[in-house]
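Researcher: Quick test of sequence recovery. Tokens follow.
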């Protein structure tokens, strides 16, 4: 917490010696940060192909728009390998790749590495069976901000959830930024990736889970819901909330009391409120 003491700004010191009047150099740790960024991407056609062939955990592949046609056999091979591995490919303007590139030699393709490997939804259900208690799985519906996804993973791990589900598209992936925002929770909590949220909810329902959605316009106060049931908790994005198809799959839409002038919570804050109510009810 910030201290209540008041500090007086020290009087600025005049530069001395040969550095006086010269612009400041790179800040301390600058090279380390560049190194970290470089470790989070694979750039160039052959490096990306080899990463795909080796089964390296990749989150997304960004491919220049003019490189995706059939006349480009290398790009076609990258697309085929990515499809086999279930890795999303995002086509984008080459200028975007220029901004993303650390090496300056991306050759029209950059792969974003995953900070952790993905699992299947069946794996999450197996984890809950091993624990011998009702499943608690968090489903993130279009959480695009890495900070929010990392914070949700952090709260889910602390509250005893069995895992998190995210869609392949329209979602942040398990990037180093998400790992950092999770405060290390991603090392302990498995994350499954699915084709889309609706299909994930169908699979969870077939496994006997009740679907609870966080919705400001919901019909049940969150503290009145029975969260001791086997459940999946759906968290939507701040701007759009839960998608229509996801909402239609929910057995309960939960609302959180709000008396301020702002009528919505950050997605990760809403997730924390509901997850810890589940923890309270379960008495774990």
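Model:
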């Amino acid at each position: 917490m910030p201290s209540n003491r008041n500090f007086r700004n020290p009087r600025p010191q005049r530069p001395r010696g040969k550095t006086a009047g010269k612009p400041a150099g790179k800040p301390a740790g600058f090279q380390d940060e560049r190194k970290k960024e470089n470790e989070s991407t694979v750039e160039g056609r052959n490096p990306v192909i080899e990463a795909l062939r080796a089964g390296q955990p990749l989150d997304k592949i960004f491919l220049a728009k003019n490189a995706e046609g059939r006349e480009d056999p290398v790009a076609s091979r990258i697309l085929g390998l990515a499809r086999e591995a279930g890795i999303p490919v995002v086509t984008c303007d080459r200028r975007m790749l220029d901004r993303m590139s650390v090496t300056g030699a991306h050759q029209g393709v950059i792969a974003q590495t995953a900070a952790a490997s993905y699992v299947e939804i069946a794996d999450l259900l197996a984890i809950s069976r091993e624990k011998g208690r009702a499943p608690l799985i968090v489903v993130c519906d279009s959480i695009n901000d890495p900070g929010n996804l990392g914070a949700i993973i952090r709260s889910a791990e602390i509250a005893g959830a069995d895992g998190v589900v995210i869609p392949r598209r329209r979602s942040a992936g398990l990037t180093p930024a998400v790992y950092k925002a999770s405060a290390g929770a991603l090392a302990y909590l498995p994350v499954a990736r699915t084709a889309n949220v609706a299909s994930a909810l169908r699979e969870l329902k077939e496994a006997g889970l009740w679907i609870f959605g966080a919705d400001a316009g919901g019909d049940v106060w969150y503290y009145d819901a029975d969260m001791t049931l086997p459940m999946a908790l759906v968290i939507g994005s701040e701007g759009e909330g839960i998608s229509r198809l996801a909402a239609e799959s929910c057995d309960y839409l939960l609302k959180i009391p709000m008396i301020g002038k702002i009528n919505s919570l950050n997605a990760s804050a809403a997730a924390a409120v509901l997850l810890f109510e589940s923890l309270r009810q379960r008495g774990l």
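The longest strand covers residues 58-64.
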